[in-house]
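During the no-cost extension, the postdoctoral fellow (Dr. R.K.) reprocessed legacy sequence entries with the updated structure-token encoder. One reprocessed record is reproduced below for audit purposes.
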Amino acid sequence: MNNQEILSSQIYDPSIYKRPNTTVDVVIFTIIDKQLHVLTVKRTEEPFKGMWSLIGGYVDIEKDKNLESTATRKLQEKTGVQTPYLEQFETIGNADRDPRGWSITTVYFALISSEGVELKTGKGTNDIKWSKIEKRKIEEPLAFDHAEILQRCTERLRNKVLYTSLPIHLMPSEFTLSELQKVYEILLGQKIEHKSFRRRMLGADILVEAEGMRHEGRRPAQLYRVKEGHNAHFFIRNLEGAT
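Re-encoded structure tokens follow.
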């Protein structure tokens, strides 16, 4: 053993370094009854026993290849959905967010259709539900710093709706352009110009016509579905009439 190897063996012992708790939180959005909702669970263990929280948990170093794997696993465990829109939002780390000690969490947000989703509780929870979001918050107090996370994540989603196709991931398998426009308006909290919206969506080459029509008002409307392989489209300009 040379001098460098001896020195390395003397000064590097991973066990002597304290490590923060490492978790992933997933803000899972959907639309129910023309309202934006987020998935929440009720905790059965301390800290914050009996309070609602966002979906999340510790990184499993045996199962998870990376942070996105943790987020995908948590989403699949709770909803059964395996291939949603998933985006990393932010990483938060400090000594105050978790009473158990120094904690780092990486926050993702997911967009899914509630169509056909069966919610499942898991370890440490005894109830799970979709909570309605109004003014970037829900009625129930949230554990940890999850209220602040939800507020920031909801604002991020709204901002991205102005110039992306993200709301298509909240749609059922088939939908009309009017139904898609309504989801945009729910997320933005305001009306948008119909003809401009229609031109934008049909010109982006992200939708394909589905078989059949749906009656809306006096005449039937064409059904569409998302083009296979599409994830997100970025438009050059913000939506007309939306601020």
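The longest helix spans residues 146-161. The chain has five helices and eight strands. The remaining legacy entries will be reprocessed before the final report is submitted.
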